[in-house]
Design brief:
The complex is a heterotrimer of chains A (294), B (375) and C (361). Chain A is mostly helical and 294 residues long. Chain A has a single domain, classed as MetI-like fold (Orthogonal Bundle), CATH 1.10.3720.10. Chain A has 14 helices and two strands. In chain A, helix 9 crosses helix 10. Chain A starts with a helix and ends with a helix. Chain B folds into two domains: 235 residues, 3-Layer(aba) Sandwich (Rossmann fold), CATH 3.40.50; 124 residues, OB fold (Dihydrolipoamide Acetyltransferase, E2P), CATH 2.40.50. In chain B, the strands form four sheets. In chain B, strands 6-7-8-3-9-10 form a six-stranded mixed β-sheet, with helices on both faces. In chain B, strands 13-12-11-14-20 form a five-stranded antiparallel β-sheet. A five-stranded antiparallel β-sheet of chain B has the order 15-19-16-17-18, with no helix packed on it. In chain B, strand 9 and strand 10 form a beta hairpin. Helices cover 22% and strands 33% of the residues of chain B. Chain B has 375 residues and is of the alpha+beta class. Chain C is of the alpha/beta class and 361 residues long. Helix content of chain C is 43%, strand content 16%. Chain C is built from 18 helices and eleven strands. In chain C, strand 1, helix 2 and strand 2 form a beta-alpha-beta unit. Classes of the chains: A mainly alpha (294), B alpha+beta (375), C alpha/beta (361).
């Protein structure tokens, strides 16, 4: 009995410590006011003060402020748009890779899997930096294209949205490939043969059988890319242009340039609320998948 | 009333529906099918029987179009289909795993092939309903494959492969996943459906009982070659080799040296300590040629005393009794040391069984009961 | 002085720290010291030196305001220092432990006192100006021999910028530098904290926005040196570094730095000790070491920035002390202005204005 209770308690304690407590702290800061102090907001709770008095000083001013300036909802929308386009691009690149991996000879697959995971062995920042080296006007890509003669003057790719998309697709590709590969790998090859036997060409068997059956993997992959991409900060700030508007950058500016921790926290709380929708949808997809597998 | 016997393979003028002509299939260095010729006739229920790796599945996959022959021709209704893709063949297949589309309902699974033919909606619907009725699945039309039982899934797979009314239906171990009782019931159901639809069935199986039950003819395969192609009864009674005798049914194999008597009768010397056995064969054997006598256990009589007029009689001791309900198998150790199995129908209640362990008994059989096979 | 986030910052931000008594942890700007000095410090004092770098005042400030950074010496710029002193992030210096403080240069001390009254919390490390770096032959080829390379007219007049756009112009991605410059161009007080006055800069900056290839605070060094761009508005030392790199590469690029005639921002990087420094005694030892005339001269000779140490001047190399781009002459010095930190409301207006200029939203 005690053992069972313990087993149930562990994930909840985990959730409490790693999600709920930090969230409540951020939420509390979002209800505070900015101040020149250490830490730079008021009120600061200390044991011994009356909790009632403390709570009285909190208000939703910062959330109201977010609605007054169009910067914030534009940044949220722009982030959603960038995340959506990047997710579709990642899917378009990732699906064929996953498909080829699943169709590759058995003895090749561990190697291919390794190659997909290999980039994780290097620092994420170093990999994004190397893309700066590749994409800059004097970078490898432009030098190569000039050498081949495809272009006569260097292309401006770095510091544009194109570079942001390249960065996101590159960084999150494994998160797209692995779940799709997992569903394709489990896919019974005789289903494709059955479809062909019943009159499908190779292409229509793919559309009518392979694609629908890999849907759980596609959905999982899309969420795994979409969710972190909305709040992405490092890629747009290193590869994007000054005009790449993303909520992660706005949050950074609130936090660092304006030193307004309460507004920054409010931005973060709203971001989290926006993310809850896809996260819940993702959970339901996973659950449905688990039930179908049973 | 004398119904015409269905045996087109005996009719010289009959045109086979499927012809394998010098078909060879290689996977790399491995030869799966080696220079094979086979004719299958319309409306036949034809079984490919053999142990795993014998090439029977390769034969079926070449018919379905999933494998191309390395050389030779496969002719169906006069057309060489050896290199046609699967979707252009008048052939459908029922897969061993059933291969039902898990994202589609039973109804949609059955309609899948019809929809590919771009048939009008009402026609598709009528045909699917017909198939549901044939396989008694009407109640499950809206269910997904994971919501029905194994036996129901098997019937969906059958209905789906029959929906397009193919000239030829291939069945790959269709009953392998069912338990014994359901399997036996389904065997008769399959035969019934085959008769109703008049479709030519080719079934692949490793289960000789199943092949014997359902098939009009059976091809026994070994290592990419046909060993014997014959009706079930002839295969059982007249195996052409030790391999077939051993593979089809239970059999006692006795190794011996032949010496001709009169006509097709031979004396078979098999043991220093025992008398020679008497057997018949149409194959001419030379004096002293080594051969086998294959004798089915149920053709051996068991008695306490030596029977008077038996062509073959040997004495031994009951070592083991296998009780199967309807019959019992006696394992009898002969004086010479060999073990012979004899089967006796249990016509009486078990308390009255005639023989017990360690009882001395006589085993006997007639000269024509066994088959004499050259080495 | 603001720079964009880079790998070093993030890495430093992720590193936790537990201090020991016999070590000093210093958090300074990247590429801002001669490493030989660090070794010298360890040998002379026997104190182990742990040296981390950052390249953004904002990151440093966030660490200071959050507290518990674990550093003993940090180097914020003047305006940031002032706000952090107000927030109570630093401890007063104990002058008794800093005998070398007599070496400091009173001219600079007077100016830094507006951020740190009585210089009670900090000592000056380096200082410099923000101005215009140009690829002289390129710009003269486009705008003629009399191109205004020493004036803000070069970068804020849309006519000039429209022509210069073809060879490339970079601006600092730092509103606290760009808005005072735009105010100076308009003839307003560069240190204005008035909302309406600051709002006027939107027309100036917005008017040339489309001709600016990039807003970035670090890439212009390479871009100028390689000849990828012909104009950059940036920090003196960085542009001088670009000039030297072009010399070394001998690629025909000739860079010049000018503090704008309309006035140039003078900034100061100050060394201070966090209020919760684990080893304040060690921190004082480090500050005293840095204020040694020879050590400070070595540092300036290495990084090409002016320092606030009068005693070090005779020890500086000729190409440092006599370069007006590093040590401005009396005339230019009069023309330099300083800024004070914005309050929260104006800071928000400035950040918002900057976002609007860059992103159009």
């Amino acid at each position: 009995m005690l053992r069972r209770w313990f087993l149930i308690a562990v994930p909840y304690v985990w959730l409490l410590a790693l999600f709920l407590v930090p969230f409540l702290i951020v939420f509390k800061i979002s209800l505070s006011d900015a101040a020149i102090a250490r830490p730079p907001y008021l009120p600061v709770f200390s044991w011994g003060d009356s909790i009632i008095d403390f709570i009285r000083e909190l208000d939703f001013e910062n959330f109201i402020f977010l609605t007054e300036d169009d910067l914030y909802w534009k940044a949220y929308l722009s982030s959603l748009q960038i995340a959506l386009i990047a997710t579709i691009l990642t899917l378009l690149v990732g699906y064929p890779v996953a498909y080829a991996m699943a169709r590759a000879p058995e003895h090749w697959r561990p190697t291919l899997m390794m190659l997909v995971i290999l980039p994780f062995w290097t620092s994420f920042l170093i990999r994004v930096y190397s893309w700066m080296g590749i994409l800059s006007t004097e970078g490898f890509l432009n030098q190569f294209l000039l050498w081949v003669g495809v272009i006569s003057s260097p292309l401006q790719i770095l510091n544009t949205d194109t570079a942001v998309y390249i960065g996101i697709v590159y960084t999150y590709l494994p998160f797209m490939i692995l779940p799709i590969y997992a569903t394709l790998d489990r896919l019974d090859g005789s289903l494709i043969e059955a479809a062909e036997d019943l009159g499908c060409s190779r292409a229509s068997a793919f559309w009518l059988v392979t694609l629908p059956l890999s849907r759980p993997g596609i959905i999982a992959g899309c969420f795994l890319v979409f969710i972190p991409t909305i709040g992405e900060f490092v890629i747009p700030s290193l590869l994007g242009g000054s005009d790449t508007l993303m909520i992660g950058k706005v949050l950074w500016e609130e936090f660092f340039s304006n030193r307004d921790w309460p507004v920054a926290s409010a931005v973060a709380v709203v971001l989290l609320l926006i993310l809850i929708i896809p996260i819940v949808l993702f959970q339901r997809n996973q659950q449905k998948q688990a039930e179908a597998d049973r | 009333m004398n119904a015409p016997v269905f045996a087109p393979w005996t009719d010289q003028s009959a045109e086979p529906m499927i012809r394998f002509r010098n078909v060879t299939k290689k996977f790399g260095d491995f030869t799966a099918i080696s220079n094979l010729n086979l004719d299958i006739y319309e409306k036949e229920f034809f079984a490919l029987l053999g142990p795993s790796g014998c090439g029977k599945t390769t034969m079926m996959r070449m018919l379905a179009g999933f494998e191309e022959p390395t050389s030779g021709d496969i002719i169906v209704s006069g057309d060489n289909i050896g290199h046609l893709p699967p979707n252009q063949r008048p052939v459908n297949m029922m897969f061993q795993s059933y291969a039902l589309f898990p994202h589609l309902s039973v109804w949609e699974n059955i309609a899948f092939g019809l929809r590919r033919d771009k048939l009008p909606k009402d026609q598709i619907s009528a045909r699917v309903d017909e198939m549901l009725k044939l396989t008694r699945l009407e109640k499950f039309a809206r269910r997904k494959p994971h919501q029905i039982s194994g036996g129901q899934r098997q019937r969906v797979a059958l209905a789906r492969s029959l929906a397009k009314a193919p000239k030829l239906l291939l069945l790959d171990e269709p009953l392998g996943a069912l338990d014994k009782k359901l399997r036996e019931a389904t065997q008769f159901e399959l035969m019934d459906i085959q008769e109703k639809t008049g479709t030519t069935f080719v079934i692949v199986t490793h289960d000789q009982e199943e092949a014997m039950t359902v098939a009009s003819r059976i091809a026994v395969m070994d290592e990419g070659k046909l060993v014997q192609v014959d009706t079930p009864d002839r295969l059982y009674e007249n195996p052409n080799s030790r391999y077939v005798a051993d593979f089809v049914g239970d059999v006692n194999i006795i190794e011996a040296k032949a010496s001709p008597l009169d006509g097709d009768r031979y004396a078979l010397h098999w043991s220093e300590a025992e008398d020679a056995l008497i057997g018949t064969t149409s194959t001419a054997l030379s004096d002293g040629q080594s051969c086998y006598m294959a004798i089915r256990p149920e053709k051996i009589a068991i008695s306490a005393d030596r029977p008077e007029d038996a062509a073959n009689a040997v004495q031994g001791k009951v070592e083991d009794i296998g009780y199967l309900g309807n019959m019992s198998t006696y394992h009898v150790r002969l004086n010479s040391g060999s073990l012979i199995k004899a089967q006796v129908a249990n016509q009486r209640r078990i308390s009255r069984r005639a023989f017990a362990w360690e009882d001395p008994v006589w085993l006997s059989w007639t000269a024509t009961a066994g088959v004499v096979l050259a080495d | 002085m603001t720079r964009t986030l880079t790998a070093a910052t993030v890495t430093a931000a992720l590193l936790g720290s537990v201090a020991l008594a016999d070590e000093v942890r210093v958090y300074n700007w990247s590429d801002y010291i001669d490493e030989a000095l660090l070794e010298k410090f360890e040998q002379e004092t026997g104190i182990e030196l742990i040296y981390d770098v950052f390249d953004s005042n904002e990151v440093l400030e966030t660490k200071m305001l959050a507290g518990g950074s674990g550093y003993d010496v940090v180097v914020p710029s003047g305006t940031f220092l002032q706000r952090q002193i107000q927030a109570g992030a630093f401890q007063q210096l104990d002058m008794a432990q800093l005998p070398n403080s007599g070496n400091l240069w009173d001219v600079i001390q007077d100016r830094t006192a507006q951020y740190d009254p009585d210089n009670a919390y900090s000592i000056n490390y380096m200082w410099g100006t923000t101005g215009i770096g140009v690829n002289v032959p390129k710009v003269q080829e486009i705008l003629g021999e009399d191109a205004p390379i020493g004036s803000l007219d070069l970068i804020f007049n849309p006519d000039n910028m429209a022509k210069l756009a073809e060879c490339g112009v970079y601006f600092l991605d730092a509103p606290s530098e760009m808005i005072p410059a735009a105010l100076a161009y308009l003839g307003e007080d560069p240190n204005s904290h008035d909302s309406d006055t600051i709002a006027k800069t939107e027309a100036v900056l917005g008017g040339v926005r489309e001709h600016v290839a990039k807003f970035n605070s670090s890439e212009y060094i390479n871009a100028l040196a390689n000849g990828d761009i012909c104009v950059a508005f940036g920090w003196s030392g960085d542009i001088l570094q670009a000039r030297d790199r072009a010399w070394e590469a001998d690629n025909g690029v000739e860079i010049a730095y000018n503090a704008p005639s309309e006035g140039a921002l003078m900034w100061f990087d100050q060394m201070a000790i966090p209020v919760d420094a684990p080893n304040p005694e060690g921190a004082h030892v480090f500050l005293n070491f840095i204020m040694d005339a020879q050590n400070m001269a070595d540092a300036s000779n290495y990084v090409y920035y002016a320092n606030g140490n009068a005693a070090s001047k005779p020890l500086l190399e000729e190409d440092v002390i006599s370069d007006p781009a590093i040590y401005p002459d009396e005339e230019t010095l009069k023309n330099l202005y300083t800024t004070t930190p914005y309050d929260a409301r104006v800071q928000r207006q400035v950040t918002r204005l900057w976002t609007k200029i860059k992103s159009g939203t």
